[in-house]
Write a structure and sequence with these properties.
about 0% strand, mainly alpha, about 325 residues, 15 helices
Length: about 325
């Protein structure tokens, strides 16, 4: 991935953050790599439609299908409960999985147009503001939704793991801890999810308010460029909140899923390999089109993550239903 592409998508980072670490920036995005591995473009159809980064476009299409189909499926599941009040829906993990998948599909749809179907830009926030907002905002939204959904799955599972030990502490402490766990899962997580998303809304409003003003004309944009909050919203929720919560879900939910572990490893390894873009370019060049580029591998890693989570959730829900049926059968014949 070239400096030009990076700075077109993250202009505030290039102007206000990367200058403080010039050697690191040059190490990650060396000039010789941009020249050795130029952006790949293919032309399709009688209209001579140019498609930039064709492999990335394929991963984006896969992400769109995964996000929309998975999101609608989980949305349907969240609305199948007997009580359909907003509060009761927000107390179930399914709605957060739905939000995560739907916003993931939105991110891929915006990314498909921004990175593949439109001409290159010098500054995406200025030249393609709607597509850029769609990409950055939806990425932050799915990061926060993954965080909430994973914690919703992990808290009850963690409580079941701790039940045997907490019984040794006395019935009073046991009841108190159970109440705390239920409060955290049904009240604190939905409230935190809503508050964090309000921060995301604030980043969008900040960008829309200041995007047409020259940076030197206002004291706020001198300190905080118009696009910087949204750029941070793009990166922080997925890399910090969601990643830790997903690991907690893996450790707490039983039975332990080797498939989910393999999904995490595959996704994270692909993400790390993407950081080796300069080495991959020098080794393979454009022999595999744009497959071994940072942007394409980033899209691939998220596709792997969401597909793996989807498969695991289907199996996990079936197991939960079987356990509930067995419990009801025991109570009926007790």
């Amino acid at each position: 991935m070239s400096k030009q592409m990076t700075c077109s998508f993250f202009p505030a980072h290039c102007s206000h953050i990367f200058p403080f670490v010039p050697r690191t920036f040059d190490l990650i995005f060396p000039e010789d790599v941009a020249q050795a591995c130029p952006e790949q473009v293919i032309t399709l159809g009688s209209n001579n439609q140019n498609i930039r980064r064709p492999v990335l476009a394929l991963f984006a299409l896969l992400g769109i299908v995964t996000g929309i189909v998975g999101g609608l499926r989980f949305l349907q599941q969240s609305l199948q409960h007997k009580t359909t009040s907003v509060i009761s829906i927000l107390q179930k993990p399914t709605i957060y999985w739905s939000v995560a998948f739907l916003s993931f599909g939105t991110m891929n749809l915006s990314g498909l147009f921004l990175h593949c179907l439109t001409d290159p830009t010098i500054s995406s926030p200025i030249e393609r503001p709607l597509l850029w907002i769609g990409d950055t905002c939806s990425t932050g939204v799915f990061g926060v939704a993954l965080w909430a959904a994973a914690l919703m799955e992990a808290f009850p599972a963690a409580w079941q793991l701790l039940q045997g030990k907490t019984k040794l502490w006395g019935s009073n402490n046991h009841s108190r801890l159970e109440a705390m766990a239920q409060t955290a899962a049904k009240l604190l997580i939905p409230c935190a999810w809503a508050l964090i998303n309000l921060v995301g809304v604030g980043t969008v409003l900040y960008f829309l308010w200041f995007r047409n003003q020259p940076a030197d004309d206002h004291i706020m944009t001198r300190m905080i460029p118009a696009s910087l909050p949204l750029e941070m919203w793009y990166a922080i929720p997925a890399t910090s909140l969601a990643s830790h919560a997903l690991v907690l879900m893996l450790l707490c939910c039983r039975p332990f899923s080797k498939g989910l572990l393999l999904t995490y490893i595959s996704s994270y390894v692909t993400f790390l390999v993407a950081l080796g873009d300069p080495w991959l370019c020098r080794q393979f060049g454009n022999s595999m089109s744009d497959l071994f580029t940072t942007a394409t591998l980033f899209f691939a890693s998220t596709d792997v993550l969401f597909l793996g989570i989807w498969v695991w959730l289907e199996d996990y829900r079936k197991m939960q239903q079987q356990q509930q049926q067995q419990q009801q059968h025991k109570e009926k014949h007790a």
